[in-house]
Design a protein that fits this description.
It is a single chain. This protein has about 70 residues and is an all-alpha fold. Helix content is about 60%, strand content about 0%. The protein has two helices and no strands. The longest helix is centred in the last third of the chain and has 26 residues, at about 40-65.
Length: about 70
């Protein structure tokens, strides 16, 4: 059970969707809920893809909003 508390409950669905999209992009099959059967490499790939996408969005926002 996770000890992390969601500060903005409405954001949980968006974060879950983002995680599923990132997993799909790197070829990792996530299921809703518990995914403790993933290897460290798979979990790291998903997290790395999420960070990559966040950085790309930030860089695009800077270019757009100067």
């Amino acid at each position: 059970m996770s000890k992390n508390k969601v500060v903005v409950p409405e954001a949980q669905a968006a974060l879950d969707k983002f995680k599923m999209e990132a997993a799909s992009e790197v070829g990792v099959n996530l299921k809703q809920g518990y995914n403790g059967d993933l290897t460290s490499r798979q979990a790291g790939s998903v997290g790395g893809q999420m960070v990559k996408k966040m950085i790309e969005k930030y860089e695009n926002d800077i270019k757009t909003n100067g």
